[in-house]
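hey
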């Protein structure tokens, strides 16, 4: 693939990017795209200034606005090689943008290069999802979002209904969807019910904020993460036309981003709906820049746990439940002390769902099983496999 045909490279001598960068700043730990072999890198930053299917007019200008702050953060002294491909050239029709972005992400994932997408509007998650269509694997999608983004099947795709398009896509290669941080006053009860009927999972903002550490196994199970900046409270991220007084705090958003970076399974992530026109003192862009920094920091500290490594050296815990009628098997990594649980599946589905047998969980799930209760994560996965 000739990336030079798809991208406008970053020019650090124009606009807000024109700055006297020091040796210890982020820009000096990455390479800007100049027709290099992309397969030599571990991470690729992609700006996508597409907003035609969003009510958040102005978010198309976000990529360089975020770069302004990202480039000035502290550099990494690590083995991960990072390239900034620049800004994707927007197609004449929005489907052209979707196709180009999907093709680029597919190529990068095949080369084991992890794309970080700076949107643009969140419907670009649909293009991200389509990139996995030809990879012959089912995928898990996690969205950090104040809404569930469901709509009518016959509606044109936009940033408020893209999840419906993903769920209904044929062939169906979505295994699981998880929403983190939805706010009840933005979500119809029927939407929550539909998510539950599909054996997907959704977590209210208040539920998550009580124990932010429980987000880690949810994110660890994702292939794709989509972060809508409106999930962060307005006082900390005002640059969004759908901003709300309530939401995650900035440090919580950074913690979630770092969890995503730590996951050996995750292969793409996007940050969407940042609107420079409404951004007071660059506050939102600065927050997203720090989230990307923490994501890369997590990536630099990956432990090569499952699915990269083998479970053979893990500690194995077998919990007998219901007077010995059922058994749940847990594994604890010797490298990271993170937990997984084994979920049985029909033998004829082994090939298709092989990557989803070992389900990320937490120590609390193990304690739940010890209390003779089936962990909710185990049950939902079992229902999908049966």
């Amino acid at each position: 693939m000739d990336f030079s045909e798809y991208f406008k490279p970053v020019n650090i001598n124009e606009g807000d990017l024109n700055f006297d960068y020091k040796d210890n700043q982020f820009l000096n730990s990455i390479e800007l795209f100049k027709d290099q072999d992309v397969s030599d890198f571990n991470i690729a930053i992609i700006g996508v200034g597409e907003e035609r299917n969003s009510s958040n007019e102005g978010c198309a200008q976000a990529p360089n606005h975020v770069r302004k702050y990202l480039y000035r953060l502290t550099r990494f002294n690590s083995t991960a090689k990072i390239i900034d491909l620049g800004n994707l050239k927007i197609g004449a029709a929005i489907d052209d943008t979707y196709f180009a972005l999907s093709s680029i992400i597919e190529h990068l994932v095949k080369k084991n290069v992890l794309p970080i997408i700076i949107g643009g509007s969140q419907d670009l998650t649909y293009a991200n999802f389509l990139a996995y269509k030809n990879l012959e694997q089912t995928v898990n999608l996690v969205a950090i979002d104040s809404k569930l983004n469901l709509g009518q099947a016959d509606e044109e795709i936009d940033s408020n209904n893209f999840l419906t398009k993903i769920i209904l896509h044929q062939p169906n290669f979505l295994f699981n969807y998880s929403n983190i941080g939805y706010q009840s006053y933005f979500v119809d009860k029927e939407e929550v019910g539909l998510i539950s009927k599909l054996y997907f999972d959704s977590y209210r903002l208040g539920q998550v904020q009580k124990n932010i550490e429980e987000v880690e196994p949810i994110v660890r199970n994702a292939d794709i993460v989509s972060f809508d900046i409106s999930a962060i409270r307005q006082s900390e991220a005002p640059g969004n036309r759908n901003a709300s007084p309530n939401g995650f705090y900035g440090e919580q958003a950074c913690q979630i981003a770092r969890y995503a970076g730590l996951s050996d399974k995750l292969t793409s992530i996007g940050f969407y709906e940042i609107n420079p026109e409404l951004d007071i003192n660059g506050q939102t862009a600065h927050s997203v820049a720090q989230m990307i920094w923490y994501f890369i920091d997590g990536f630099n500290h990956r432990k090569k746990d499952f699915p990269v490594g083998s479970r053979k050296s893990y500690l194995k815990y077998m919990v007998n439940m219901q007077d010995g009628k059922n058994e749940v098997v847990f594994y604890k990594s010797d490298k990271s002390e993170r937990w997984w649980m084994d979920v049985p599946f029909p033998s004829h589905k082994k090939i298709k769902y092989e990557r989803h047998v070992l389900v990320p969980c937490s120590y609390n799930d193990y304690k739940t099983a010890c209390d003779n209760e089936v962990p909710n994560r185990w049950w939902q996965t079992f229902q999908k496999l049966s």
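The chain has two domains: 3-300, 315-385. The chain has twelve helices and 14 strands.
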